[in-house]
């Protein structure tokens, strides 16, 4: 069943003017991209910096509005919703970023950061049991809620960021380079955690990465992006066995041992 | 030849960050150093150019082309740096002076170390940039670092490192901040330069794929110890040390299609003070023996080189 439908979305940014009398140049960061994502499925998006993959993530998350096209979540276009309703809808899709240290407030206890999405929903229930549950789901202990981010290793901080993302029991997780900054042995642990949570919670994952090997071993299907467009898309095995573009072949060469 | 013998680095508190490392690189040889954070690979590299941060104690000896240099002999290192040993880093932006034109940055060591005139140094800088394959080398001379892309900046740093024709180039994670396609071109460039100049290359990376395509021989480090060494392709195909095995298995591979759980190494790299006195991998090793915690294993010959593991030493 389709959870997320992205329908020929484009996003353009106006660049600084170069000359007073000429129109400002425009950068098309995402250019007519379409895909669907079903419940429990993982879609990989690969591309280099500037390919538009992070802008695509921001469009899916509703952080930005597309200039053209639609992003439908459970058939509903989030951009049609008034701000309060969009905030409430956001519990159903959450994001994990590359740098867990940058996304956790260093002066707040971990429990406070993990509970943040619940506060945004303005619920009245005590967040503590939910925080404890989320921390345990990601392989940490409930007691870790009382500690500060600097007391944790990089891999543990990424677990904390994942706990914060799943505390609202989302249907979709957008992981933007979520394992790129981690050592190989820790990266494997976090990838396994994401796959476990996916099975437990029926999560759909939009997995954004520049590393084709990581995408190959975690994703059902993949999109290869360059310059804001989708170069090719398909089942992971099919794309890897018969890449249709030189760029995909370059990514393959870079990931080969 | 450039060699380190019994090189150890200790923190102020006395914890060993590198334990009696031996390595040697000959002209034209490309040696990879693989390890995760905390493995000591960057400290080992910094010791090879006499740049270990203050507060750490270095012991052992380093021989550069037959001359033995004491680790703390700053005057000797100043003579050797640039001419004998040069280094490039992960983040090319922070290693370049943002206020200086690229041409002036590269010309400076040529004037200081080689006594070239300003115009001769500029001509040489242009040639060096051309050698790194940067497009439009003439135009780059008058540009500032912020006007260049990440890959172009890394090429400028390589040109700068080559300025005094070093016998050894140390590259510490030179491709980590770059996109895949750019990273491929930079490693190709390093291989070509090592071949054409008969320059030794010490290539440090956590990226096994980058090490595989760049180097002929490799060292694997864990917790400050060199745990395995040998020909790169053979170590990767047939690792002997339990840590090397775990590291290669944990790496996602193109051969695995669709969702598959990855084999993992349990736990995380402990802080230096918590590492075992014996084998550094003790506590996380899946095939640990009782003696591993307190007795440091000696290097034992393997099919691809050597590895320091008690399981290899004593045949059952």
Secondary-structure topology with pairs:
The complex is a heterodimer of chains A (257) and B (316).
Chain A: E1 2-14, E2 26-38, E3 42-46, H1 53-60, E4 68-73, E5 76-77, H2 83-89, E6 93-96, H3 100-103, H4 110-114, H5 116-120, H6 128-137, H7 154-166, E7 172-176, H8 184-201, E8 204-209, H9 212-216, E9 221-226, E10 229-235, H10 236-241, H11 246-255
Parallel strand pairs in A: 3-8, 3-9, 6-7, 7-8
Antiparallel strand pairs in A: 1-2, 1-4, 4-5, 9-10
Helix pairs in contact in A: 6-7, 7-8
Chain B: E1 2-10, E2 16-25, E3 30-34, H1 41-47, E4 57-64, E5 67-69, H2 74-80, E6 85-88, H3 92-95, H4 102-114, H5 118-131, H6 137-140, H7 150-162, E7 168-172, H8 180-197, E8 200-205, H9 208-214, E9 217-222, E10 225-231, H10 232-237, H11 242-250, E11 299-301, E12 305-308, H12 310-313
Parallel strand pairs in B: 3-8, 3-9, 6-7, 7-8
Antiparallel strand pairs in B: 1-2, 1-4, 4-5, 9-10, 10-12, 11-12
Structure description:
The complex is a heterodimer of chains A (257) and B (316). Chain A is of the alpha/beta class and 257 residues long. Helices cover 35% and strands 26% of the residues of chain A. Chain A contains 11 helices and 10 strands. Chain A has helices at residues 53-60, 83-89, 100-103, 110-114, 116-120, 128-137, 154-166, 184-201, 212-216, 236-241, 246-255; strands at 2-14, 26-38, 42-46, 68-73, 76-77, 93-96, 172-176, 204-209, 221-226, 229-235. In chain A, the strands form 2 sheets. A 6-stranded mixed beta sheet of chain A has the order 6-7-8-3-9-10, with helices on both faces. Chain A has a 4-stranded antiparallel beta sheet with strand order 2-1-4-5, with helices on one face. In chain A, strand 9 (221-226) and strand 10 form a beta hairpin. The longest helix of chain A has 18 residues, at 184-201. Chain B is α/β, with parallel strands linked by helices. Chain B folds into 2 domains: 2-215, P-loop containing nucleotide triphosphate hydrolases (Rossmann fold, 3-Layer(aba) Sandwich); 225-250 and 264-312, no CATH class. Chain B is built from 12 helices and 12 strands. Chain B has helices spanning 41-47, 74-80, 92-95, 102-114, 118-131, 137-140, 150-162, 180-197, 208-214, 232-237, 242-250, 310-313; strands at 2-10, 16-25, 30-34, 57-64, 67-69, 85-88, 168-172, 200-205, 217-222, 225-231, 299-301, 305-308. In chain B, the strands form 2 sheets. Chain B has an 8-stranded mixed beta sheet, with helices on both faces. Chain B starts with a strand and ends with a helix. The relative contact order of chain B is 0.14.
